[in-house]
């Protein structure tokens, strides 16, 4: 069991003489001389030096409403480009959503048979369009090779009679 602290929490009383003695014994005269020489070369109060700040105020650019501009031209250009890209992405998504709505109505009217992507030649038009975007002119050739791999895989699995479940033992 923890016992509460019952000691004295007051701060020790240190006089100026004690403080000067501490500095003299720990830092010595050589360190104090170097420090004094360093301070002599500096201004008395570096916080009062506003020349850099005032120079920046003179060069500052203000918006028509009087607000000081804090962004550089490059930053403004980057934000403008980013906004344009967001608008382009939103327009593309809206166009795709509209196309999907049109495709959905056509699909429901055309057939209720679901096409399997694993059977060659039954992939949807949307899939073929994606293949063309990904692979360009070689899309048909790559699609045929993928179909061949799928057929070979299915044949191999039919011959081997491999059981997928349960293939991993449970440790309880």
Structure description:
Pfam families: DUF3807. This protein is mostly helical and 172 residues long. Among the domains are: 71-109; 119-165. It contains five helices and no strands. Helix 4 (125-135) packs across helix 5. The protein is elongated. The model is unreliable at 112-117 (pLDDT under 50).
Number of helices: 5
Mean pLDDT: 74
Number of DSSP-assigned strands: 0
Distance from N terminus to C terminus (CA atoms, Å) equals: 39 Å
- The helix-strand sequence is HHHHH
Low-confidence segments, ≥5 residues, pLDDT <50?
112-117
Please bin the fraction of helical residues: 55-70%
Tell me, briefly, the overall form.
elongated
Main beta sheet: none
Structural class: mainly alpha
Strand content: under 5%
- Based on CA atoms alone, the radius of gyration comes out at 39 Å
Summarize the entry for a quick read:
InterPro entries: DUF3807. The protein has 172 residues and is an all-alpha fold.
Topology readout:
Elements: H1 16-41, H2 51-59, H3 73-110, H4 125-135, H5 139-160
Helix pairs in contact: 4-5
Pfam family, one: DUF3807
GO cellular component, one term: SMN complex
Key features?
62% helix, 172 residues, DUF3807
């Amino acid at each position: 069991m923890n016992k509460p602290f019952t000691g004295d929490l007051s701060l020790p009383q240190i006089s100026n003489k004690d403080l000067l003695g501490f500095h003299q014994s720990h830092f010595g005269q050589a360190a104090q001389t170097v420090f004094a020489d360093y301070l002599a070369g500096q201004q008395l109060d570096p916080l009062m030096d506003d020349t850099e700040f005032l120079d920046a105020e003179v060069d500052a650019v203000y918006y028509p409403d009087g607000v000081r501009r804090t962004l550089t031209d490059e930053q403004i250009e980057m934000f403008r480009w980013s906004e344009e890209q967001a608008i382009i992405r939103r327009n593309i998504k809206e166009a795709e959503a509209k196309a999907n709505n049109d495709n959905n109505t056509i699909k429901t009217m055309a057939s209720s048979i679901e096409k399997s992507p694993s059977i060659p030649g039954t992939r949807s038009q949307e899939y073929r369009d994606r293949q063309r975007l990904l692979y360009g002119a070689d899309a048909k050739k790559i699609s045929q090779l993928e179909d061949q791999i799928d057929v070979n895989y299915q044949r191999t699995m039919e011959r081997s009679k491999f059981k997928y479940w349960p293939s991993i033992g449970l440790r309880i």
